[in-house]
Specification:
Helix content is about 40%, strand content about 15%. By secondary structure, the protein is an alpha/beta fold.
Length: about 350
């Protein structure tokens, strides 16, 4: 395990240096204002980006990166999404963009199944369709801009939980925002499979869905602590529920006894790293994710990214590999700690 963490920390150093370098000359400055969409400019290429939740720190980071790419490519970017994680609202927006005849739609689905017919409708209308952060089922897109390999994320979540707990034999729980979300389910499954194979003495207790609501995550975690007083580890999947779970454990005065591991942006989790409530946070750079998604959408729509392509150029991020199932891979996950969290601002 120490060997794994050593490699992990080396990866953090590389990621941190890259982020610092980008902060000097290329990382988009924070933009607190998000457009609600609007009329597109007929003289330019138009891309519509639909996040899972508008106003969420993570997706605001994606928007910052998307803005920068749109400026570099001189395209019109429309950004809008639900404020409550509802897939029906995403569908309404996409229907509007189809009617408007945008060139590309880039979406992070709140439900990977329900959204499929609408995305297929967009494809039938000749619109380039890409998913980012979370994929849609049944191949209802041209490409998926994948933030990180699910197996790597799952392994990282478990390794960090075990390292924080200082043991590899204890009871643990899993909380996931949405098991109908293809990405979150894949990360959750990967974590549990990795735990069963690598640490057979870990005892899995239960998995609970807590939706994209921090208050509900807090309540769910608080109730589970009463049901399972012996629990020593909690893995959370999804950036919204992680802070809620941390708060529940902290309010129960159990931060020193329960290792809570999850996924959130540095800005969302910074205070918890600083006060010692947690030691690790697993994620990637959402600014880069949004940036890459716009480049991929542009090249898909103009036909230069062909069906048999094995890589794509994404501006300042360089070349990204494309898998056989048309996943454009952003890279490996990063681990944020007290030592490196100050190097990031998203």
């Amino acid at each position: 395990m120490k060997k794994v963490l050593a490699v992990l920390m080396a990866g953090i150093m590389i990621f941190s240096m890259a982020a610092c370098a980008k902060g000097e000359d290329s990382t988009p400055e924070a933009n607190t204002e998000e457009p609600t969409g609007g009329e597109s400019n007929d003289s330019t290429f138009t891309a519509a980006m639909v996040p899972q939740i508008k106003g969420n720190e993570y997706f605001t980071g994606c928007y910052e990166g998307a803005q920068k790419a749109a400026e570099e490519l001189d395209i019109d970017l429309i950004y809008d999404g639900p404020t409550d994680g509802r897939v029906d609202r995403q569908i309404e927006l996409i229907e509007t963009y189809i009617a408007d005849g945008v060139d590309a739609i880039i979406v992070s689905p709140n439900d990977s199944d329900t959204i499929v017919p609408t995305l297929q409708k967009a494809q039938d209308a000749g619109i380039a369709v890409l998913t980012f952060d979370v994929d849609a089922n049944d191949g209802a897109r041209d490409y998926f801009v994948n933030p990180a390999d699910a197996s790597l994320i799952g392994a990282q979540l478990i390794e960090c939980m075990v390292e924080e707990a200082g043991a590899d034999s204890f009871d643990y729980l899993v909380l996931c925002e949405s098991l109908s979300d293809a990405g979150q389910k894949a990360w959750t499954d990967a974590a549990m499979e990795y735990a069963a194979e690598k640490y057979p003495n870990l005892n899995f207790l239960e998995i609970k869905q807590c939706t994209q609501n921090q208050d509900q995550a807090y309540t769910t975690a608080k109730d589970l602590l009463k049901v399972y007083p012996e629990v020593k580890g909690i893995v959370t999947v999804g950036s919204v529920c992680f802070p809620g779970v941390i708060e529940a454990v902290r309010d129960a005065d159990l931060s020193d006894e329960i290792a809570v591991q999850g996924m959130a942006t540095p800005n969302e989790i910074r205070n918890y790293l600083e006060d010692g409530s947690i030691k690790y946070d697993v994620l990637w750079n959402p600014i880069n994710l949004g940036y890459a998604a716009i480049y991929a959408a542009y090249y898909t729509a103009d036909g230069s990214l062909t069906a048999d392509a094995s890589e794509v150029e994404c501006g300042e991020l360089g070349t990204m590999n494309i898998t056989e199932d048309k996943n454009i891979m952003l890279g490996e996950p990063a681990v944020f700690t007290l030592e490196n969290v100050g190097d990031f601002d998203f």
